[in-house]
Amino acid sequence: MYLHKELETMSRDEINAYQLEKLKSTITHCMNSPFYKKRFDQEKLSADSIKSLDDLRRFPFTTKEDLRATYPFGMAAVPLEKCIRLHSSSGTTGNPTVILHTRNDIEAWADAMARCMYMVGMRPNDVFQNSSGYGMFTGGLGMQYGAERLGMLTVPAGAGNTKRQIKFMKDFGTTCLHAIPSYASRLYEVMKEEGIDPRRDLKLRVLAIGAEPHSDEQRHRIEDMLGVKAYNSFGMSEMCGPGVAFECPEQNGMHIWEDYYIVEIIDPVTLEPVPDGEIGEMVLTTLKREAMPMIRYRTRDLTRILPGECPCGRHHKRLARMQGRSDDMIILKGVNIFPIQIEQILMRYKELGSDYLITLNREDINDSMTIEVELNQLFTDDYGRLQSLTRDITRELKDEILVTPYVKLVSKGSLPRTEGKAKRVVDNRITH
After folding, report:
1. What's the average model confidence in pLDDT over 276-286?
2. Is the pLDDT of residue 212 over 60?
3. Distance CA 420, CA 58 (A)
4. Confidence band, pLDDT 50/70/90 cuts, at residue 379
5. Count of CB atoms within 10 A of residue 245's CB?
6. Residue 380's pLDDT is what?
7. Are 425 and 370 in contact (CB under 8 A)?
8. Over the stretch 85-120, which tens digit does the pLDDT of each residue have?
9. Which of 14-28, 361-375, 389-403 has the lowest mean pLDDT?
10. What is the rounded CA–CA span in Å between residue 134 and residue 156?
11. Would you state the pLDDT for residue 365?
């Protein structure tokens, strides 16, 4: 049940004591980083400033803008010759963000990822297939490290080429799979086209999903389609990659490994902490990073800490699934809306497929939202049924997001397909 039993089953008091000791040593190590040394000296802060975990709040936040401003290596806390790997964001605007790793960083990452996989039942005799991208994206290598650390036979299939993915799953007897949620749905679509029943024709038994926000309704739909349990995961390149938090078999929130990270949830506007159970922006501090430790990194991801204990016996805090990002929020007619709210409604209707697209337009001085969603079955000849379904969906969406969208039911396969992260929102207002 536990890969690292002593660390996974620490009590809250033991976790707090462990974090306090690691935090002091991390702050000391940060003084080797030109960026942090300058910042801490200006604020007159040091490891001696830490008497309790609450003292972490005295330290300033680190942001993605800091990473870009110090590009490429200005935040490193070790000489470059001690680093063996870097990962980088796509950097579509301005400098990309660069994260460096020492050999110890890679080893710790592999341990964390292996712990996650073992927790949900993956074992050395499994065949693990990874449909995530490799290269600069951390999802591929992070999962690879964990699978190899556990001793699984790994199939580094990479992203895309869906028919080949399915052939590999059949031929190699894949039992464990990693896929982003939208791609898991795409896999099932192609399986149906090829006449493959995943329950009958495959040996798949465990699915790890993550990398894009998704609702619990979407997860249940994927489980129904593929006939396996789908476990939610969270990671980000600034924190190494996948393996930051993962669901246990209880599927009641993702355990964040507090021997690796200190988690805070703050109000993204006031920057003050919010109580457990309330949604806010997640802030993370690393405790085991050599090359580039991060102090109070603002992830922009919105979640909450779930109160109470988990029956699995782990006392590491549990995070609710990501509700989106504070910088991805849609503001329409003065209302704050997150795409995940819309998905939760759409996934309740068995008549609808998994693909949808939200388009925002500006008509004169009025903003509008159009939601195109694919039908699960082709019954477009039943005009009355389509009208009734459209009205029901519109009414539920209005109750949830407080504005009335234009809902368009479209035939299956008519929305653009992607084998990477699904593009859910197109904002045409930015051109006005």
Report:
1. 96
2. yes
3. 39
4. low
5. 30
6. 60
7. no
8. 999 875 445 688 899 999 999 999 999 999 999 999
9. 361-375
10. 9
11. 67
Compute the distance between CA of residue 78 and CA of residue 101 in angstroms, rounded to an integer.
10
Name every residue whose Cβ is closer than 8 Å to that of residue 327 and which is 6 or more positions away in sequence. 300
Tell me what pLDDT residue 90 has: 59
In the sheet that holds 297-303, the strands lie side by side as: 261-266, 280-286, 297-303
Question: What's residue 94's pLDDT?
Answer: 66
Nearest Cα neighbor of 98 from 115, 119, 73, 121 is 73
Q: Which residues contact 287 (CB under 8 A, 6 or more apart)?
A: 19, 22, 23, 26, 259, 260, 261, 262
Per-residue H/E/C for the chain: CCCCHHHHCCCHHHHHHHHHHHHHHHHHHHCCCHHHHHHHHHHCCCHHHCCCHHHHHHCCCECHHHHHHCCCCCCCCCCHHHEEEEEECCCCCCCCCEEEEEHHHHHHHHHHHHHHHHHCCCCCCCEEEECCCCCCCHHHHHHHHHHHHHCCEEECCCCCCHHHHHHHHHHHCCCEEECCHHHHHHHHHHHHHCCCCHHHHCCCCEEEECCCCCCHHHHHHHHHHHCCEEEEEEECHHHCCEEEEEECCCCCCEEECCCCEEEEEECCCCCCECCCCCCEEEEEEECCCCCCCCCCEEEEEEECEECCCCCCCCCCCEECCCCCECCCCEEECCEEECHHHHHHHHCCCCCEEEEEEEEEEEECCEEEEEEEEEECCCCCCCHHHHHHHHHHHHHHHHHHHCCCCEEEEECCCCCCCCCCCCCCEEEHHHHC
